[in-house]
Amino acid sequence: MIIILAGGQIDLGMLDGLVALYDAAKTESERERAFEDIYALAGERLRAMVWRAAGGASLDGTDVDTLAREALGRALRESGVARLHRVQGDWQALLGALLGGRNEAGRRLWGLLTPALQERMRQSQRYLKATDANVLLKELNALLTRHDLPVHLGLGPARTGAMPDIAYANAGMLVEAFPGAQIKVLRPPRNILGYLSKIVLPEMRKQIREMAGRRPLNAQDAAIMSALRPALKQYEEMKGTGTLPPELAGLPFAAAVNALYRADLDRRYGPARAWWEQMVRKIRPDNPFVVKDVISWRSAKALFEQAGVPADQWREPGSPYYIPKGAMKPYGIQTVERVLGLPSMRSLQGPGAGGEQRPLPRAPEAAPGWAGELALSHGGGADLYRQVVEQLFARPGYEAEHAVGLMLARSPNPTPADVEQYLGTIDAETAEVIREIGWASVAREVDRRVLEVVSDPARRGELARQTGQAPRALTAAVGAVRRALMARRICAIIKRAA
User: Fold this and answer.
1) What is the pLDDT of residues 16-58, one digit of tens each?
2) How far is Cα 277 from Cα 296, in angstroms, rounded to an integer?
3) Which residue stretches of 101-242 are H helix?
4) What is the three-class DSSP state of 309?
5) How far apart (Å, rounded) are the C-alpha atoms in residues 179 and 182?
6) Which of 404, 421, 445, 471 is the most buried (most CB within 10 A)?
7) Of 482, 464, 465, nearest to 473 (Cα)?
8) pLDDT below 70 — which residues of the chain?
9) Considering the entire predicted model, what is its pTM?
10) Is 339 helix (H, G, I), strand (E, B) or coil?
């Protein structure tokens, strides 16, 4: 089956095959190769989805690409992954297992929960409120994808295989370990594109718009967006109803929007332009000209003024034959790409001086570590990052995340040599776990969890108390952490392109 999407056609069979390769990957490098193949197939569609989630606000190409990759990574991790679902009723059996100490698995699971949730559950004692039960459910679901969860709970060896299978097995294990708990296992279908559009991007919308808000549209770009909006709306309607013409479906998103925008100009001002040219022929039958650009449009206006053509016919907005200057100088594809925040294909790969295809620019062999260093060192970002890492991971079961987080707080973009040197200074068992899982995988998970904390407005007060920072200083520190995480993601993309 082939589905028509924003960037052209996507073969769903090919997409499913690549996702299967991703799920079956045994090493981090195999998984990254599968990820890149999936992104090559669906990347343009994802970038267009990110731009739409931004609500038309300004994003540059790097931001759009980074957010699209982040969204795809989350969809691959979560789509089709089993989840524990709360059934109406009381969770007293599970609460008793976690607090009572009579169940070995319960005691071990307790150590994997966050200190904040532990405190709330201690206060509950006899009855777990629905709000606390939902928080507990969220944390349990976050644990399901851990291949070493059976080891931590003393219920078996570490699991191998595809992530959805690991999560499903872990969910069943928890249900069996706590039979009295009112929970059941749900395993939704693995639908990457559907999960992206219905779950991931709506949840990322705030993050996307916050990033876009750093670059508000100037007056010129706002005018361009206003001119493009009818074409964007038309494109969405045609795509949603399956009426997108094949000649547009095969074009890149920006090119398709540009084609609809120009067609709309012709439809709206074509009759008026025909009238202008008719009047030019009437006034200057011996030397008429075509009104096709700004220069000829100005010449026609001057001619009408000289000939005394009634102004209420053509000069003012609302006149029956009025033509605005913008209609005579339509925006090009590169302008559309810039305003929509899409990467320019001409800048990425285009013909060389002799007509040959220009190769993509080669990335440096090592990612520019100074980018993250600079971002994190300003505004107290390093201290905040370290404190959040301590809050999240300074407990049994999270030794790998804790060690990696502390290293990232000191050196946001360590080289492989730096990593190996650091691993030689920490506990040997923790270092081995990090090598087995992969430094990059642990670092991404740490970054994700830290970003969740610093992006949650409800936790700003708690962070301010813990760090002793004034609101303005805390805001600067949060901004520094966000910039550092963005720089690290960009560096990771550069490394993969090298």
Assistant:
1) 888 888 887 777 778 888 888 888 888 878 887 887 777 655 5
2) 10
3) 104-110, 115-124, 130-143, 149-153, 163-177, 192-195, 201-213, 219-241
4) coil
5) 8
6) 404
7) 464
8) 1-11, 55-62, 86-102, 125-128, 180-182, 209-219, 240, 340-381, 456-461, 463-498
9) 0.40
10) helix
